[in-house]
Amino acid sequence: MFHRLFLVVALTLAVAFSVEGFSPVSTMMKPAATSTALFASRVNAKKEKLKRNRENMRKFATPGRRGTSRRKILKKAQSAKARQLENEFIAKCFMTGPVPNEEGED
User: Are 23 and 17 a contacting pair, CB within 8 Å?
Assistant: First the structure.
């Protein structure tokens, strides 16, 4: 009877200590390649974040003025104004009117 009880207790302890959750933590052994796995995970997380940021930049980008700065817009307005003044001057130069003293030559 004592042998059976001892055998049951020994088997129970063996099963309990073989399960990882119930086993005591060994401070002498360090897990192998943990830093490498964490570093790879960190790199993947950074790549995923970069990808998410690019997608959000495209999603929330303001439409319209692509590549046109405020300076460029002001320069275009100035050149349009100068072009208009020049066209008005040229139009005044080539205006045709009655030739003076044309009536007296008949």
Answer: yes
DSSP state of 32: T
pLDDT tens, 61-81? 877 666 778 899 999 999 999
How much is the pLDDT for 24? 61
**19-56 b/e (C-beta count within 10 Å ≥ 16 → b):** eeeeeeeeeeeeeeeeeeeeeeeeeeeeeeeeeeeeee
Instruction: Name the pTM for this structure.
Output: 0.32
- Chain position carrying tokens 């040229």: 90
pLDDT surpassing 70 at residue 55: yes
CA–CA gap between residue 76 and residue 88 (Å, rounded): 18
53 token code pair: 């940021």
| Cβ-proximal residues to 73 (8 Å cutoff; 6+ apart), any chain | 65
| Six-digit token string for 54 | 């690019």
